[in-house]
Amino acid sequence: MPSKLQRELKKRGPFASLAQEVLLSIARTSDQLLVRGERLMRKYGLTGSQYNVLRILRGEGKPLPILEIASRMVQVVPGITGLIDRLEAADLVRRDRSTEDRRVILVSITDKALAVLADLDEPLKSLEEKLLRCLSVEEQRDLIRVLEKVREHLDKIGD
Fold first, then answer.
1. Could you read off the pLDDT tens digit of each residue along the chain, which spans 159 residues?
2. 19 with 94, same domain?
3. Together in a domain, 126 and 147
4. The pTM is what?
5. Statement to judge: residues 62 and 21 lie in one domain
């Protein structure tokens, strides 16, 4: 009998391996979760990547170099400079040269961005809870442990 993922993807035959089915299942689930998050972000004039930058800056509480922001992103963003450009054009971040090292550009969050994030906090928390309501607290913790184990393995094996 075909798996649920096989039926969702309308895949005629079995997957090439269990590993393939696991990876496709993670990708499919991730995509569905991201789409729902992006819909919410759009209501506030943001993309998921833009929100991620603002979340990092708010959490740090001080300006950060662009490469430091890039290293903390949940998803790798190849065009971090363009992303910062768009946030700056929307008056959500500001760039300033470091007084200690003039070669370093620091990015800081604006009051406008802090207000947008404050408006978004509760709807985002509500969405997150709604999306994972199907899992018990214990299952959520188990899922975190399993995904951390996979990421640790990826760090060890490299590219």
1. 889 999 999 999 999 999 999 999 999 999 999 999 999 999 999 999 999 999 999 999 999 999 999 999 998 888 899 999 999 999 999 999 988 888 889 999 999 999 999 999 999 999 999 999 999 999 999 999 999 999 999 999 977
2. no
3. yes
4. 0.87
5. no
> What tokens does 44 get?
């506030």
Same domain, 13 and 80: no
CB-based contacts of 14-17 (< 8 A; 24+ apart in sequence): none
Sign, CA torsion 121/96/67/49: positive
Question: Could you tell me the CA-to-CA distances from 8 to 24, 28, 89 in Å, in that order?
Answer: 11, 10, 41
Largest distance between two CA atoms of the chain: 65
Q: Give the domain extent around 58.
A: 44-157
DSSP 153: H
Tokens of 124: 């985002």
Paired residues of 108 in beta bridges: 94
